[in-house]
Amino acid sequence: MLVYRVEHKKTGTGPYVSCSLPHEAQPMARTLNSAHGGSIRHPVISWQESISFTRDMYCGFTCMEKLLQWFGEFTPKLGRYGFVIRVYETKSVFFTRSGLQIAFRKKGKKIVREISL
């Protein structure tokens, strides 16, 4: 299965992990967190979706359309701050009740494609 994930090109971290991002991207990440934090349209996978989310798990999407819908108006801004879409191939994912995001373990997974935002 292919997983589509937004990550910073240099650090490999997602846009919600502001402390791990380059300094210039941190304000944008905090704005994104405030806009999405706990909303019905952007459920927090660890507690609103009832998944036992561990440190080795990452969030992603089953298709590009869901990813672009999720990030919406933030998509161009993410690109300007060094984020890309990385496509991973994995055999195992955890589906959420909402059907919006999925969780997967990234360790050892190969990036099969990188797409500019």
Explain this structure to me?
This protein has one domain. It is 21% helix and 26% strand. The chain contains three helices and six strands, in the order E-H-E-H-H-E-E-E-E. The protein has helices at residues 26-36, 64-71, 75-80; strands at 2-8, 57-60, 83-89, 94-95, 102-105, 111-116. The longest helix is centred in the first third of the chain and has 11 residues, at 26-36. The mean pLDDT is 88.
Percent helix among the residues?
10-25%
Order of helices and strands: EHEHHEEEE
Low-confidence stretches: none
Note the main sheet: 3 strands, antiparallel
Q: What's the average pLDDT?
A: 88
Counting DSSP E segments of at least 2 residues, the number of strands comes to 6
Continuous helix count:
3
| Shape, per Cα inertia axes | globular
Biggest sheet strand order reads: 1-3-6
Question: What's the Cα radius of gyration?
Answer: 13 Å
In whole angstroms, the N-to-C terminal distance is: 22 Å
Our estimate of the beta-strand percent is: 25-35%
SSE blueprint:
Elements: E1 2-8, H1 26-36, E2 57-60, H2 64-71, H3 75-80, E3 83-89, E4 94-95, E5 102-105, E6 111-116
Antiparallel strand pairs: 1-3, 2-5, 3-6, 4-5
Q: What is the compact description of this entry?
A:
The protein is an alpha+beta fold. The chain has one domain (2-116).
What key phrases describe this protein's structure?
alpha+beta; three-stranded antiparallel sheet; 117 residues
